[in-house]
């Protein structure tokens, strides 16, 4: 080292703060693994729905951060004593609410590797493996779903990992919007109309408003119980025709395969036929239901996909990925990039300039992105396609068990036919008492036991309970026990009601 | 178990697919920890910039996923042989590009715990601890930054964890937009004008277009070298006044504390004074520079923050969090929620109905969200405020070392005064050769050694090299060695050029 450095070096303190000593990391991370494995072993002993009251945590933690370090043991003990009581245990085998989160060892290992490299792959050169593995994995999943080549990199399209369906819809909607506005002029943004059904996920309206679509121009087409709450192509046609007559411009249709409330499936092919008459962008939101389409017997729900422009599906919902993981495929990557491209000098390099590589920052909202594909890659390889299909089928079989239990009890009814692993059911009318308030009470009492957690919905004016099988640790006996908890609560209620009505 | 279940049970296969056996998880996760610790130990032996060519991975991996399981050992060996060669090692101590990613043991442990619970905390009841810990941590960080109470839950505002600055800007921009459109009418969206400088991050234009702002109405106010590329309040005032004269409506100003190219700092206080004359929403993008403001000696860069509406800062850039972690605080949570609220039946519960709790899904774009606050909480507690300040100061001291080395060499010049841990420098004019192409060649050659990675930018027409200290494993000797690599390359080039010019 040359003498010119001596002064510089002497002027610096010798002590550096190095918070990534590999041996310290190794020691503590092993400790964390044991903590987590023990949690997974005991998770079913906790109340599945947290029983704390709003504001519980504030009084247990200091108002300000510590000035000096605290030990990892202290932190783990605080997690055990203060955090875990406030957790609603999504991993509990007794979790049947919302759509459960499907987790697993391989997904966890994939997360660890994603974190390990912390590759911020906004463009190819920033981490070639991150970009290229994502392209491979997206094509693998497209293959599993029998998507047409037009959605694959090995064909003329491609896929990208987003965090949420909202982001997938926003990115494709904006691509569709800009294509049309480039033709008719930006000043006509107020004329653009988007379409979904009254069962389309609530994010749709929010995302459309984010993109500057006039709230009056967001159509939630009514569905009917006779159609099992799916969007009718005939009704859609009429709604669009009326808009066109008003000189509005039909822009985007969101078709759902597996709605959140009841897992209704919109008829993709016929809806796409209608929308394509008006040159609309058609997107399939298959966040939950699409996962089942890796099984040949459910693939027909995607029939007609070759006619649409984009499809999204969330493996974090049912294909063993931890949150946040939403797959988006499109036939029109160029349109996505036209709308979402940035080209700052500090990210330019020979590869991006020659257009020879994918820059995933131009396929999403943000600039930074994690190395998410490695998680999916580890999952797909660790289990293989057959086991993943088996996983979907096992969950559906357990849902059928629950469905049969409900059907065999005269006090209950199945409200909407089951399609996947969700059963929509309710207590029937009893002694003249209000059905909705009885079912509300049932839900509240069942959840307050902490032994099982389910949620509700209202569709077509009917209040119903939702029981979804999907938590990874759930086995059939958990389903049967859940039903017993429900029956116990109902029996208590029946006694109370009989007492009241006498 | 009642006899009515017997048939149902017999009709089911007895084998369940359970991919989360706690002991299997424990075994493999320990293996992953060792793999990762070993990677951290050896990361500096890899070429920091990946040396692969586009398409390298496709030919190394099968076109389709396996039907049956592969072992974790096989997968780890593929990661070693096929993935690691394609990785640009953001964790390498020789990484001085972009803004490096600051990682650490505590952040990793926090990630593991976030993954462990996989709490999808879209609203309070879905995981009370996830919501309440986020509120605590956001107030802790606000306290560390001396933000006014008006940005804290303990005051009248609050904070939320986003994934990226883009999302923070999109959410606040839409809140600002809707407030104004509610007054002047949605049909006037084409009149809204937003303001940044020519140094504002490239995401700004993209996000504004996403939100339906007319591309013509996105102002990139020119900065000057005399102002060190910061936005001049005087010039801004003139630009806004001209727009108002055209009957346009000033909406939103994005002020930057630490621009990406040169870490320029816009004068918050004076710019806010100008913008507030026009009732605009003022946002501070302090993604990188804001992290330094936890040290009292840098806090003045946020002076005037009490006048703005929102601030965002990314701990994944410099405060030891893994990607994706962007903190957003606002004085106006109600306006954010007004624009971003969804209220589907299936997520309703007594707490959301009574408005007694925060529903973080209404503070962000998507519905799902990870339990990110636990990562930051573990970091803040494991190191304490003093060490985090020490971390910032250490990086800046190392940047000063590099700055002095550059200054001491007559062939080089510092192009923009250093503010934080970024040094912008270049080779001076040499023997009549073109400065820009010489510096381009220098960068290309330095990076192709694999011994160090830095990037470039162009500001005010000047091509310059960026050297940022921030990778966690970097110690002073890495900085000195990097400078030696640069000098070696320059000496070779000087010899070549002298040969050419004779």
UniProtKB/TrEMBL annotation, chains A, B:
GO BP terms, alphabetized: amino acid metabolic process; carboxylic acid metabolic process
Record's keyword terms, sorted: Decarboxylase, Lyase, Pyridoxal phosphate
Protein name, as recorded: Tryptophan decarboxylase
Membership in a protein family: Belongs to the group II decarboxylase family.
A GO-annotated cellular component: cytoplasm
Cofactor(s) in the UniProt record: pyridoxal 5'-phosphate
InterPro entries linked to this entry: Aromatic_deC, PyrdxlP-dep_de-COase, PyrdxlP-dep_Trfase, PyrdxlP-dep_Trfase_major, PyrdxlP-dep_Trfase_small
Organism field: Deinandra increscens subsp. villosa
Molecular function (Gene Ontology), one example: pyridoxal phosphate binding
List of residues that carry N6-(pyridoxal phosphate)lysine: 317
